[in-house]
Amino acid sequence: MDIGAVAAFALTSFLIELTPGPNMAYLAVVAATEGRRPGFAAVAGVALGLSIIGIAAAYGLTAIINAEPVLFQGLRWAGVAYLLWLAWDGWRGADEHSDLAAAGSSLRLYFRRGLITNLLNPKAAVFYVAVLPTFLDQTGDLLRQTLILSLVYVAVATGIHAAIVALAGTARAFLTDEARIRVVQKTLAIALAMIAIWFAWKTRG
To answer: φ and ψ at 145, to 5 degrees?
Structure first.
């Protein structure tokens, strides 16, 4: 592939990923309330989700989803419902425990949640269907190009997500008072619920 096209795609991916969305909101919530390690576990889950969608895009699955309104809407509402459930779980968890991250907390839980949050995000599929193809050389090997650009996108997105976790994780050091912890957790749960509502509105078309 032309290095200029790859660089342009990387820049486009970078700018798109800076736009607030479900992944960014969820990762910030996890890092601020549970710490960096759970946050990075969620980042790994998101990265795997993006990779799976990229491979699906290469073989035409996302194009089918995007062309079928029923499938797209089903995926969209499943994503909204899952974000709302995460918000409720965070709100309930603020009352059930005061520790930010129990010593025995399983990182697999955050990895799995990051993966599911991303797989149920139709915006990721739309990116692969509407944006990525514009950078393909139609005279070349389209499958190979799609896989390469998918790897570039996953790398860019993972870098940004990791930075979000690192920055949001610094807030955890200031959460030493149990009452303050509960307030922050509930506030972030409300913010995540609002993101879910915004996401439902943004993807309604």
So the answer is: -65, -40
Cα–Cα dist 80/21, whole Å: 12
Mean pLDDT of 70-80: 73
CA 203 → CA 21, 48, 124, 133, 169, distances in Å?
11, 23, 11, 20, 29
* pTM of this structure: 0.69
Give 101's pLDDT tier (boundaries 50, 70, 90).
very low
Residue 35 has φ and ψ, to the nearest 5°, of: 115, 175
d(C-alpha 113, C-alpha 30), whole Å: 10
d(CA 42, CA 26): 9
For CA atoms 201, 109, 155, 28, the dihedral sign is positive
Instruction: Tell me which amino acid residue 195 is.
Output: I
Instruction: With residue 204 as reference, give the H or E element that holds it.
Output: none
Query: How many CA atoms within 13 Å lie on the side-chain side of 167?
Result: 10
Contact 98, 182 (CB under 8 A): yes
For residues 23 and 118, is the Cβ–Cβ distance under 8 A?
yes
